[in-house]
Structures are given as structure tokens and as C-alpha cells.
Design goal:
Largest sheet of chain B: 2 strands, antiparallel
Strand order of the largest sheet of chain A: 6-7-8-3-9-10
CATH topology of the largest domain in chain B: MetI-like fold
Strand content of chain B: under 5%
CATH class of the largest domain in chain B: Mainly Alpha
Helix content of chain B: over 70%
Bound molecules: adenosine-5'-diphosphate, magnesium ion
Number of strands of chain B: 2
Distance between the termini of chain A: 34 Å
Number of domains of chain B: 2
Distance between the termini of chain B: 35 Å
Number of helices of chain A: 8
Largest interface: A-B, 26 and 21 residues
Radius of gyration of chain A: 25 Å
Strand content of chain A: 35-45%
Shape of chain A: elongated
Largest sheet of chain A: 6 strands, mixed
CATH superfamily of the largest domain in chain B: MetI-like
Order of helices and strands of chain A: EEEHEEEHHHEHEHEEHHEEEEEEEEEE
CATH architecture of the largest domain in chain B: Orthogonal Bundle
Helix content of chain A: 10-25%
Oligomer: heterodimer
């Protein structure tokens, strides 16, 4: 598919501080793309560069094959949904939604038709004459969406669209956005600091840290194959152990990297593309891939013995934390798959935590 | 725990009254009572020497509606409207400049706007005399320019081409009154307009641009309506103050520049007609109340 947005080495500095630092990414036509990262990492700034509200200090941004340098926001084929929604408080819902058509001289009858059509799309028929102050947060959000969509942009840019909603509504709007995306068929670029939002909605996610893109990948790829410690820790939960490379061995299953660490001892893990020369490594495993046994497991598995210090009940899972001898901890997530059977574990039990070497992540730090 | 000490006035009546009573008594003694007295006087009869007679009459109000007084009222309103209109145009422009100035410039600019407040009204009015009189700075300046132009023409052998300089009569006219009233009342428009502009969510403006509006459309369709409550409040204050002013008309106005304020002042001094003066004062107060109420009602209608 053709790239609708092509960002090359884009840099934006505020004073000496680079809010966006040599970012390159390309968004395919029709894709649901997410920019994910902690607060202050430059997501909004990157979105504003694409929308044209900020001018890049370096690099280039092209939309639909056209270089956007010097193109004003009003002339870019993108629509922006602001984090604050930015509805015009003195206009009705219909006035807000029709605004972008009115200022560009679209005929009155055409405006009415398209406003009604778009309000139906966001399920707000019947609200046309309300004022924004008379709407709930979720309804305001829909008005903001309709106002941007009525212009039929090639790309919709959404800055933290769900952050102002309460948890229940957020969940509902998440499905709504995916449905909307499917029915209008345009490209969505969404900014969020909430990993579950990004993972559940987006086709691909760019993880940012301190103005830089650390990894761009599909959600499952990000979770199962993070390319660095930052991404591994930012997405989901993970047990991480410090270690260093201590050679490579050839085995039947392929080349294995030998890693030595204080808590870990000496283990062989799949290479995962990690360099055998790297002195500082982190070995990680996701809690749901860790099994707990009273008896020492079979030889293939990487294992650690510890004492249960905490059991956290989350409903669908229980997180069991073991304290190891050296002071490190390892967590296992157990699914509460049936109502009656709870993990037969109590604080103080001495257990073996083990996992398949193939589930091990080796990360350069 | 600090908030424990913040108790309701119901629980702590003594403290509440100890703090509230002095200002309330002050207001009653020096504002409500005198105002009530003036109000009563506005319905009183007038004795041969101007004494206040205890009879209830609407005579004083009826006199205010005589053509000669109506003319003065109409003229005052016209002056106040002109002053307000010009104050709004200049004031909104100034407020815009300040609202969009770099942050470190905002406070110095606001200070410049407020500076005249700290200068006595009479001094500000006399300054206009110094500027506008026939030997004033404006005439001196233009006279100097005239001479310079004449000298320049003289250099190229065209001396005597320019007519002799005639100082312009600027002072003692309605224009001079309006000019000084604009100067005095401008901050009352600038400050609320600035506050309203400053409060506008910048995202709304960017959103407008993003939706394809030009900056001019954004100003007309988004900024101005969103700042309107502040601008209206500023305009209202300027109008009320200009309508009741009398110093400018007294010092800078010509024989025909008398305003309702001068008329009132004259009743309490030279004419010794307190009854009529009180009625005129209260007419002005009724108009003020009506305007303030209308503004409040309009604001209540617009949900923010
Ligand atoms: N207009 C601005 N002036 C100065 N610094 C800014 C401005 N906008 C953003 N920044 C800084 O740039 C960094 C990135 O900000 P932003 O893009 O808003 O982050 P995010 O949206 O990821 O939370 C932050 O450190 C922020 O303080
Ligand atoms: Mg942000």
C-alpha cells in the first residue's frame, strides 16, 4: 500500500530541547496508526508537525506524496481532533460540524445534508440544535469527530481522544473509533499514552521515548518481540534480570546465547538477534509465560526458586510475586480460568518459577 | 489540618459578624443612606429659595423631559456612544496585540495600559489642553513641520509657495471632549477584552484554521464571538462612565458641549436646584441599572 504520510528525520526543538528528534516513519493509506509513549515524549508535537501547527527544524513531512514544507494547516488534507475537543462554545452542534464547510463556501443545502449525514455516522442524530455546554463528554467527543470528518480528510489525526473520558466510556469509544475508521475508510493516526488503547485499536504502533521513535511494529510484535528494554517495560508487564553475554553455543535447535546474571545464574537463550558482544543485557519474560510448580520442573525450562511474597488478584488473573534469594523478584500471572479453582498458592510457599527458553526476551540495555 | 479552621458562618456567627459588620456599616452610612436621601429629594417639592419641601411630586422628573434638557441628554448619549464605539475598536485591537504578544511582553504592555489610572483625572484632562490649545504641542509641532517644509521648498527656490501657517482651533469643541473621554475610558475596554481573549482556548483557533478557515474568518467567526462577553462588559463600563462624565466637557468643551453630568453638577451649585439635580442623577442611575441588568441577562442566556 502507498504511504499517505511519510516523515523523514523530522526534528522540532523548543529552545535547546528537542521535543521531536530525527523521527522517521511512514503510515500506509487506510492504516490505523498509533503514536504511543509516556507523557512529554513528543507525541503531540509530532502530530502538530503533521497537521502543520508547528514548523519542523529539520527533516521533511510528505502527505499523499506532496512535500508539506510551507503548507498552511488549512491547506493540508488532514483533520485534527484536539485533546480538549476545542468545540466552539457559541455554536450549536450543527454549527460546529458545518463550520469547516461554511468557511470554504459550500452551499447551504449541501452543508445541511452533509452535517446530518455525519451526525448520523457518529450517532448524534437529534442533537443538531444543542449547544456544546449541554452535552456529555462522550457526546462532545463525537461532535469533535464529526466536525473533522465532515471535511472528508485523507487522514484523521487524533490527540489523546479518549483521555478525558471515564473508564467505561473510554472502552465504548474505543470500539466506536474502530467502527468509525472502518466505515469511513480513511487513515487514522492516534496519539495515546495508554498502551492498551494503542494495542487494541491500532494496526501498527510507534513507541516513542524522549522525542525519538524506539520501535514501530504491529501490537503483537511489540509485545512479544520488543527491540529494547524501554519498549519491553513500557508495553505490558515483564520480569527483567540483568546479565551479560558469556559466549555462544551451537545446539540442535540453533545457536544459543549464554547469559550470566546474579539472579539468573547461567542460562542459554535463543539469540533473538542480540549481539554476543554486548556486555550488559537484560533477560526478560512476560509473567503469563511463567509457570509455578512445587517440584523442580524438567531440564529444558529456565527456572528460579523463590518464596511467595505477594498475591495480587486482578479478576481475570492473579499475579504471584516470588522473592528470590539475591533480593530480585519474579512475577507469574495465573489465569483464573474457572470460578472454583483458584491458584493453590499462599504467601510463604516456596515454589519454582520456570519458563520455556523460547519465551525469553534478550534485550540490549 | 488547616481546613478545620475554615468553618461555616452558621457555626461561627460571632467571627462572621465581627468581620462583616464594619464594611456593611460603612456602606450603609456613607453610601446607602446618602443615596436614599438623594432619591427622596428627587421627589420633593421646591420652595421659593430652593428649599426642599416635604411633598411628593414627579415634577422634577417631568422637567428632565423638557426639550431643552432632552437635547442635552440626547447629546450626552451621542457623545457616550461615539466614545464607546471608538474605545471598542481601539481597545479590542490593543487587547489583541497584548493577548498575542510574547509572554514576557504581556505584563509591561498591560502596565502601560493601566498607567493612566494612577494619574489624576484633572491632570489628564489638563494635559489635553496643553496638547490641543492654539499654542499647544499639536499646533507647535505642525507649525514646525510647516516651517521645515517651507524651508525645504526655499532651498529649491520655491519659497513663498506655501501659505502662511494658521494654528488650528482644536480645543473647546465636542471633538476635544470625545478625544479626552476616549483616552480616559480606553483601559476599561482593553482590560476586560484582554481577559476574555486570553481565556479563549488556543485549540479553538487552531481548530478553526485546521477546518479551512482563513485567519480573518477565524477572528470574525470564533475569536470575536468568544470574546464578546468581555468586550460587551468593557463597552458597558466605558459607556456608563462616559455618559456621567462632566470634567472633560467642563474643561475641554465649547459653549454647546454641555453634558448631562454638567447639568447635574450645575443644579447642586449655581442653580441651587437639588430636587432637579437629584431627579437627573437618578434618571442616569436607572439607565445604568437597566443596562447592567440587560448585560447580565444576556450573559446568563449564553452558556459558557
Ligand atoms: N510550545 C512549546 N514550547 C516549549 N516546549 C514545548 C512546547 N510544546 C511542547 N513542549 C515540550 O516538548 C516536549 C514534548 O511535548 P508534547 O509533544 O506535548 O508531549 P506529549 O504529547 O508526548 O505528552 C515536552 O517536554 C514539552 O514540555
Ligand atoms: Mg500530548
Amino acid at each position: 500500500m502507498a504511504a499517505i504520510i511519510e516523515v523523514r528525520d523530522a526534528t522540532k526543538r523548543f529552545g535547546a530541547h528537542a521535543a521531536v528528534d530525527r523521527v522517521s516513519l511512514s503510515v500506509a493509506e487506510g492504516e490505523f496508526f498509533a503514536l504511543l509513549g509516556p507523557s512529554g515524549c513528543g507525541k503531540t508535537t509530532l502530530l502538530r508537525l503533521i497537521a502543520g501547527f508547528e514548523t519542523a527544524d529539520g527533516g521533511s513531512i510528505a502527505i499523499d506524496g506532496t512535500d508539506m514544507t510551507g503548507v498552511e494547516p488549512q491547506d493540508r488534507p488532514v483533520g485534527m481532533v484536539f485533546q480538549s475537543y476545542a468545540l466552539f462554545p457559541h455554536m450549536t452542534v450543527a454549527g460546529n460540524v458545518g463550520y469547516g464547510l461554511r468557511v470554504t463556501g459550500v452551499a447551504k443545502s449541501e452543508i445541511e445534508r452533509r452535517v446530518a449525514e455525519t451526525l448520523a455516522l457518529v450517532k448524534l442524530d437529534g442533537y443538531a440544535e444543542r449547544m456544546p455546554a449541554q452535552l456529555s463528554g462522550g457526546q462532545r467527543q463525537r461532535v469533535a469527530l464529526a466536525r473533522a470528518l465532515v471535511k472528508r480528510p485523507r487522514v484523521l489525526l487524533l490527540d489523546e481522544p479518549l483521555s478525558a473520558l471515564d473508564a467505561k466510556l473510554r472502552e465504548q469509544m474505543r470500539h466506536e473509533l474502530v467502527r468509525l475508521k472502518q466505515s469511513v475508510g480513511i487513515t487514522f493516526v492516534i496519539v495515546t499514552h495508554d498502551q492498551s488503547e494503542a494495542l487494541s485499536m491500532a494496526d501498527r504502533v510507534a513507541v516513542m521515548e524522549l522525542g525519538r521513535v524506539r520501535q514501530i511494529a504491529a501490537p503483537d510484535e511489540l509485545y512479544e518481540h520488543p527491540n529494547c528494554r524501554f519498549v519491553a517495560e513500557f508495553i505490558g508487564r515483564i520480569n527483567l534480570f540483568d546479565g551479560r553475554a558469556a559466549g555462544v553455543v551451537e545446539e540442535a535447535g540453533g545457536r544459543r546465547l549464554i547469559v550470566e546474571g546474579a539472579a539468573l545464574g547461567r542460562v542459554g537463550v535463543p539469540m533473538n538477534g542480540a549481539s554476543a558482544a554486548a556486555s550488559a543485557l537484560a533477560v526478560g519474560v512476560r509473567p503469563e509465560k511463567v509457570r509455578l510448580d512445587a517440584a523442580e520442573p524438567d531440564d529444558q525450562r529456565i527456572r528460579l526458586q523463590g518464596r511467595v511474597v505477594e498475591i495480587a488478584y486482578f479478576g481475570e488473573t492473579s499475579q504471584i510475586m516470588l522473592a528470590l534469594d539475591g533480593g530480585a523478584t519474579v512475577s507469574a500471572a495465573l489465569t483464573n480460568a474457572t470460578r472454583s479453582v483458584r491458584p493453590g498458592v499462599a504467601v510463604g510457599d516456596v515454589l519454582w518459577a520456570s519458563w520455556d527458553p523460547a519465551d525469553t526476551l534478550v534485550l540490549e540495555t | 489540618m488547616r481546613h478545620d479552621r475554615l468553618r461555616s458562618w452558621r457555626e461561627d456567627g460571632a467571627a462572621f459578624w465581627a468581620l462583616t459588620a464594619p464594611p456593611v456599616l460603612w456602606l450603609v452610612a456613607f453610601f446607602v443612606v446618602p443615596l436614599a436621601m438623594v432619591w427622596l429629594v428627587s421627589f420633593a417639592g421646591r420652595g421659593p429659595q430652593g428649599q426642599v419641601l416635604p411633598v411628593a411630586t414627579l415634577e422634577n422628573y417631568a422637567r428632565a423631559l423638557e426639550p431643552i434638557h432632552l437635547l442635552i441628554i440626547a447629546k450626552s448619549v451621542a457623545i457616550a456612544v461615539a466614545v464607546t464605539a471608538i474605545c471598542v475598536v481601539i481597545g479590542v485591537a490593543m487587547a489583541l496585540v497584548i493577548a498575542f504578544a510574547p509572554t514576557r511582553w504581556k505584563n509591561p504592555l498591560l502596565l502601560l495600559v493601566m498607567l493612566p489610572f494612577w494619574t489624576n483625572l484633572l491632570i489628564r484632562t489638563y494635559s489635553w489642553i496643553a496638547l490641543l490649545r492654539s499654542e499647544g504641542l499639536v499646533n507647535l509641532g505642525s507649525g514646525w513641520l510647516h516651517e521645515a517644509a517651507d524651508a525645504l521648498l526655499g532651498l529649491v527656490g520655491l519659497d513663498g509657495l506655501m501659505p502662511a501657517f494658521q494654528p488650528v482651533e482644536l480645543l473647546y469643541s465636542t471633538s476635544a471632549v470625545i478625544l479626552s473621554l476616549i483616552h480616559i475610558h480606553l483601559p476599561f475596554v482593553v482590560l476586560p477584552a484582554y481577559a476574555a481573549l486570553e481565556r479563549i482556548d488556543r485549540d479553538c483557533l487552531e481548530s478553526s484554521l485546521d477546518l479551512g478557515a482563513t485567519p480573518a474568518q477565524t477572528f470574525r467567526l470564533v475569536m470575536l464571538p468568544m470574546a464578546m462577553p468581555g468586550i460587551a462588559t468593557g463597552a458597558l463600563i466605558a459607556f456608563i462612565l462616559a455618559l456621567g462624565s462632566f470634567v472633560a466637557a467642563d474643561l475641554l468643551g465649547g459653549t454647546d458641549s454641555i453634558m448631562i453630568g454638567n447639568l447635574i453638577q450645575r443644579q447642586f451649585t449655581a442653580s441651587n436646584d437639588w430636587q432637579f439635580g437629584a431627579a437627573l442623577s437618578f434618571l442616569l442611575l436607572y439607565v445604568t441599572f437597566a443596562l447592567v441588568w440587560l448585560n447580565a441577562a444576556r450573559r446568563a442566556r449564553v452558556p459558557s
